[in-house]
Amino acid sequence: MEIFCNPCSEDRSYQYRQAKRPQIGHLKYAGAPKLGGYFQSGIITPLPDYRYSRKNANLRESGERTTGCFCCGMITASQFNEPTHSNMRTCSERRAMASVWTGKSLDSGRRFFMPVIVYDAIQQRSLNIRNNQEDNILFQVRSMALIVWLAFSAVLPQFLSAQQSESSTANAISLDAVDASAERLPRLHSLIIHQHGETIYERYFNGRSASQPANMKSASKSVISALIGIAIEEGFIDSVEQPIIEFFPEYVDTDLALTVASITVEDLLTMQSGLTSTSGRNYGRWVVSDDWVDAALRMPMIAEPGSRMIYSTGTTHILSAILERASGLNAKAFAQRYFADPLGFRMAYWSQDPKGVYFGGNDMEMRPRDMLAFGLMYLNQGRFDGEQVVPGDWVQESFQAHAQSPRGEGRFYGYGWWLRDMAGLQVPLAWGFGGQLIFVLPMFDMVVVATSDSTPGDTRRGHLGRLYDLVEFQIIAPLLAQQQALQSAVSHQ
């Protein structure tokens, strides 16, 4: 028989009625008896009670039992119409208080384990003890229960926030909507979403498969940055402040001596060499030259090194040559030993210039899952599978805004990584022409990878913008709204 106290009966328009109690014997007990209940997945079910007053004790001795109000948990004698006490809050009051504490509207006082309910139970226990002149031991028990509750309630909001944040990701992101939007992008080849240590979405489009490498285009600049960080850690390069002329002694007695001496490794990493860009309208003339490194260094100096961003693939290609000269390994061999092997994959095709220098900043191929491994390594501060691949402080510096992009507001550049404003957040990403993207989202413990067709065609126009919109408005924005709601709930407790 389900029994409801009068306040609950009036508040919920319930009449005392017959109903089968839920089966709870299979659930794990998770509370002290005096705070009793079975707790699983955020649900507490009131239990039959034999404890609270001397009347209850007498009922127990006579073989009769008491139970809690099925709605609020108030102790009620099973053969009486009136509860044994009447100074507890009604369910609506409990729900109102719980809504403030959790930030949620609760349907029933018995559906969530709330400090409000526990506190009321302790208050009532105290009242019963005083009214019935229980001995000092019971007062000590009450005091200990209050101390335990205070300690538990201090950490419960954080626990619930973490549990809700992790378990409700699928609710925050509509993967069906993501999938539908992805299908409407005719140039999209792959999309992977990885969060909390598992891939929650992975699909390949337009005839592509997981085994096919993608040309990362300029997203390979982020890989070159990682290799430079490793080279500094391994002692091949002194620091980011090292002048690049130390790697090109052949220019010391030439007309380029002052130019090369004024540029540092960091200037190349942040696209602030001051040299005229080799990209854009200059790209074709640059790549038909016999010596790409020399041609990049001979571009006219148009700004003071370190003063402003000038996007240029040639500056990243100079870094590839520096890796080779500093380590004695070509860039691909260096990458395989220090980068790809720890991440568990083989370097695929990577083009070279006429002198045999691997193209620093373009035409590097990786499978989407290998790109994901790269992103996860940066998400975890340079660690992968228990190994520190890239120094953690290098990852942090890479994600700092060292230069502002002239391409638009809210765009910055770190060490080979773009920083883009998305849904009000500054998101680090590796960017490649046509839609080769690795988004690293530490605030959500997430990495998103996308690859696309980079060849010319009618559908190329607008593809990148639509892909950005998919990530920003269907992945980042819902997660941000969820996070803000959880923080608001905790702050109101």
Structural summary, described in words:
A hairpin with a 2-residue loop joins β13 (418-422) and β14. The strands form five sheets. Strands 6-5-16-15-14-13-12-11 form an eight-stranded antiparallel sheet, sandwiched between helices. The chain has a two-stranded antiparallel sheet with strand order 1-2. It folds into two domains: 6-167, no CATH class; 172-491, Beta-lactamase (3-Layer(aba) Sandwich), CATH 3.40.710.10. The chain is globular and about 90 Å long. Residues 1-119 and 160-165 have low confidence and may be disordered. It is an alpha+beta fold and 493 residues long. α4 runs antiparallel to α5 (136-167). The two termini are 35 Å apart. It has helices at 6-11, 54-61, 91-102, 115-132, 136-167, 169-172, 175-183, 220-234, 257-262, 265-269, 283-287, 292-297, 313-327, 331-343, 368-379, 392-398, 463-491, and strands spanning 38-40, 43-45, 66-68, 75-77, 188-195, 198-204, 214-215, 365-366, 383-384, 387-388, 403-404, 411-413, 418-422, 425-432, 436-441, 446-452. It is built from 17 helices and 16 strands. The longest helix has 32 residues, at 136-167.
Which SSEs are present, and which pair or pack?
Elements: H1 6-11, E1 38-40, E2 43-45, H2 54-61, E3 66-68, E4 75-77, H3 91-102, H4 115-132, H5 136-167, H6 169-172, H7 175-183, E5 188-195, E6 198-204, E7 214-215, H8 220-234, H9 257-262, H10 265-269, H11 283-287, H12 292-297, H13 313-327, H14 331-343, E8 365-366, H15 368-379, E9 383-384, E10 387-388, H16 392-398, E11 403-404, E12 411-413, E13 418-422, E14 425-432, E15 436-441, E16 446-452, H17 463-491
Antiparallel strand pairs: 1-2, 3-4, 5-6, 5-16, 7-8, 9-10, 11-12, 12-13, 13-14, 14-15, 15-16
